[in-house]
Structure formats: structure tokens, C-alpha cells
Write the C-alpha cells for this entry.
Amino acid sequence: MITEMLDCSEESLIKASGLIKRGEVVGIPTETVYGLAANAFDASAVEKIFKAKGRPSDNPLIVHVSDFDMIKEAASEVPELAYKLAERFWPGPLTMIMPKSDKVPYVTSGGLDTVGIRFPSHPAAHRLIELCGVPLAAPSANLSGSPSPTTAKRVLDDMNGRIPAIIDGGESLVGVESTVISFENGGVRILRPGGVTREMLLEVCPAEVDRGVLSEVESGAVVRSPGMKYRHYAPKASVKLIKGSAEKYREYVLNHASSGDFCLLFEESEAVGGVPYLCYGGSAEEQAHALFEKLRLLDEMGAKTVYARCPSAEGVGLAVYNRILRAAGFCVIDLEEK
Ligand code: TXA
Ligand code: MG
């Protein structure tokens, strides 16, 4: 199969919607990361997504809508609070888990009776869903296990020959996937942190961070979100997350780094001796925007061990910390003074 690159013109989006209506899978831009989209109600189209990604069949897909009414097609029951949150944060990087409607096949929901729904703000994603007239199931457009793609080129790297088309909508603005929440006791539980932060959610309702966000799930344990079981965002390099001041970090790297190792810094001023490095930014927003691309670059450069500075877990930083913690296989070296 030849994978065609499309732009965001109306003509291209009509072409892409034609493919989706015929049961094909298309790479699409969203404001969080790129997705692999198919008709959420078409079980055999959705099966093609799982095949293209090599994704375990029990890991459910997020269903993307282009207006508020479409929620009712995908969900059998919409909590009052969901409308309140949608009014505040949609379109945008918030996925809400609700009981699924009969129209959503179990292939899409990974066998669960619930479905995660989100309304993306990227104009091309929005228009494409409108043109298709059905919600689109779309996981991140990476091969299962590798970092999510934030450009069309990265989607092509992983999906060339596996899907018929990719829409190039520029760099994803946020850079990490949406916040995933479930509803309980009049509030929400954050199953995956993202661009809509806990602080933002707290302005509307009680919001608790699930244990699985910051700690490793034991094998065989029951999890609230199947995604927590899998080692995500894993580059080929071994990532070590170093917690502590720039000074302590420097000392540690000087004592441990050998040939083939890299530093992942916030800023260039933190460079250590002759150890090669990449920077992923000083603010949480910059870090979210850059992290996945930097992890892919480190692999391309053949990094063996990556010593990464540990981000602050405030605001969208919680999402950055969650992703890099998983990239590091939960290996944190804590140099902070007690
Ligand atoms: O920003 C995003 O959410 C991107 C873009 C393309 O929209 N999509 C994305 O999808 O990140 P994916 O499939 O890579 O991640 C979906 C996560 C998984 O961890 C999955 O387990 C969880 O959401 N999830 C989906 N439906 C769920 C459900 N019904 N119950 C619990 N967790 C669910
Ligand atoms: Mg993913």
C-alpha cells in the first residue's frame, strides 16, 4: 500500500473522508498528538487500526466527535457533570469516559462497556469528523509502544505502507495526549494527565489523580484504564530520570556517563562536559510540546543511555512527568536533599 500525504484543504479532507467512509484508516492531526482514525461504529475498520499499530486488543480507543450532539450517539448515558466540563474544555484535550451506546462495537471499546469521548480542537480534525458524519475512533498514530507522533512526518515513519493516507496539519500544539477522566462521587478521577490540568478541572469539580498515573501497575492488577498496563512512550534507549538540582545532575552525569550516552536537558546552559545533549525546554508547556520528538531524535542518534532532567509535576508538567516516567520504565534516581 502506498501512503499518500494530504494537506488540510477542503478537497483533501473530502478525499480523506471518502477513505474513512469506505472503511479505511487515515492519519490525522489533532492539537494533542496525531491519531489513526477510522469510523468508530465500523468494527472491521477499527480492527485495521489495531493491526496497523500492533496494539493489544484489550486497549480501548478514544472516540472523537465534532459537536455536542454526537456524544449521545456514542454514549448511552451522559452525566450532568460531563456537559459542564464539555462546555468549559471542549473542543480541547479532555477525554471523558461514559457508558457506551450499542452503536459502539466492542472492538472500539476494547471489550469494555464504557467509551472515552473527546472533541478535538484542531480545525482539520473537526472538519474531517463533520464530513464523515460519524464519530472517529483514533488512538495515537505511533506503532504500539513507541512515542506518540507530533508531526505528519513521524506518522509516516511508523505507518508508511500500513495506511492509505496521512493529513499533514503541522506540529501538534500541546504535544502530549489528552487528559483522560472517569466520573465518580460527583467528581472526576484523572486516569491520564494531559493538557487539561488537575488545577483546571478543580475549578469545576473535585478531581483526584489515580494511583496508576505516578506508580507502576503490578502485573495482574485490576486497572481503571487499560493503557496503564502497557509500557508506553518507550524509546529504544534506556532513560534514567534524574531528580535534583542542576548542580547535582551535573555531578551525577560526570560520574556515570560513557560513550554513546546522551543528556536530555531543560536548557543548553546545563550541558555537562563533552556529553552530547538535546534540550526539551524550560517551561512545562515547552516540555510537553517537545518531549516525544526529542525521544524519537535520541533513538535516531543511537543513544544508549539517556540522563534526563526530571520535570516539575505542576500543571501540564504532571503529564510530562507521567510520560517521561513511563519512558524511563519508572527508573528515577533521586538526588534531592532530604
Ligand atoms: O490526545 C489523545 O487522546 C490522542 C489523540 C489522537 O486524540 N489519542 C490517544 O489515544 O492518545 P490512545 O489510544 O493512544 O490512548 C487512549 C488511552 C489509553 O490509555 C486507553 O487505555 C484509555 O485512553 N482509554 C480509552 N478508553 C477508555 C475506557 N473506556 N476506559 C478506560 N480507559 C480508556
Ligand atoms: Mg497512545
User: Anything to note?
Assistant: The domain at 4-213 is CATH 3.90.870.10 (DHBP synthase). The mean pLDDT is 95.
